Model the fold of this input.
Amino acid sequence: IILNRNEIVYIESNDSEVWVVANDKRRFRNKTGISQWENLLGKDFIRVHRSYLVRKELIQETLYDSLILADGTSIPVSRKYRETVASLWAK
Done:
């Protein structure tokens, strides 16, 4: 499967499984670790949890411990990454 970077909504890591979620709700299981995805995808994506990497432009709203994407998906934000997420709107 080949996806363009702009088709990826978020990456979710669950133990040894990593899922790439596309903008049409397709999900692809992958063996590439989330840290490797973070390096591959670059500045258009933000790590918001040890298990989630999200495309920045799709974030609609940030709450204290989660964020809402354009399609209504809620993604948790861990304490470790709260400041990083909050800094997106401080600029």
Summary: Residues 65 and 77 are 5 Å apart (CA to CA). The first strand starts at residue 8 and ends at 14. Helices lie at 34-41, 79-90.
